[in-house]
Design goal:
The protein is about 50% helix and about 20% strand. It is built from nine helices and seven strands. The longest helix has 19 residues. The protein has a seven-stranded mixed sheet, sandwiched between helices. Helix 1 packs across helix 2 and helix 7 packs parallel to helix 8.
Length: about 240
């Protein structure tokens, strides 16, 4: 692989491209630049490398930039990344925690801190949205969002490697500790918290925010109602 092609691929990786999409960009650029000679140049592996070579470069670059994908090296790399991120913002807005073999990262970025401080709706309603299987390690991401006329604005986030209640509880306490002094527009808690129908989330939230009212989102209310209707209909048959 030529140095020019290698540098182009690395730049594409850092922009968010996968190995296949980065290679597609290389081929497209070559096709536009040299349409008459593309069939010849594309056969040159120094200019257009194979999928295996590009994938190997991607893994090597990813490992250098973000650390290992598992084991103790992953934990060490994650701690280093958190420390660098906090140093870059000149404050503690990201916290790493570990409980036995499980770990989490709680985040309240400067943008999220500004939302706490400047948006009145932060003291009214907070939505907690959980998504799983976000990557090959099956991490779970919890987003804490407030609804506004401009759309949802983030006020915090948690990334954990499992769905255990005690891990979420520890991560939630860590998240509160990195929130700004005027969290939730100076009220220290939202009036209403809307969540999924998951006790592993609701119990820690009710413990950390005892003065907040916990409600289920509309989707889960309708889902539970439909389930009750179906059971009632089946029982009468």
């Amino acid at each position: 692989m030529s140095d020019n092609t290698r540098q182009k691929l690395i730049e594409l990786f850092h922009r968010g491209h996968s190995p296949s999409s980065a290679l597609h960009c290389i081929k497209t650029e070559l096709m536009i630049a040299t349409p008459d000679d593309y069939h010849v140049l594309s056969a040159d592996s120094s200019i257009v490398p194979s999928n295996a070579v590009v994938s190997h470069l991607y893994r090597a670059e990813f490992s250098r930039e973000y650390g290992a994908l598992s084991g103790d090296k992953l934990i060490d790399g994650l701690k280093t990344f958190v420390d660098k991120f906090n140093a870059s913002v000149e404050g503690e807005c990201c916290k790493f925690g570990q409980v036995e073999d499980n770990y989490f990262v709680s985040v309240c970025t400067p943008l999220m801190a500004r939302v706490h401080d400047l948006v009145p709706q932060t003291a009214e309603i907070m939505l907690v949205h959980a998504s799983g299987g976000m990557d090959r390690q099956k991490h779970r991401v919890y987003m804490f969002v407030i609804p506004t006329v401009a759309g949802g604005l983030p006020v915090g986030a948690i990334v954990a490697n499992c769905e255990r209640q005690n891990i979420f509880a520890e991560a939630l306490i860590a998240l509160i500790s990195v929130m700004p002094e005027r969290k939730f527009y100076g009220c220290s808690h939202p009036a209403v918290i809307i969540t999924d129908n998951d006790l592993k989330e609701r119990l820690p939230l009710s413990s950390v925010f005892p003065e907040s009212t916990l409600l289920l989102c509309q989707f889960h209310i309708l889902k539970s109602l439909w389930s009750c209707i179906n059971k009632a209909v089946l029982s009468q048959r």
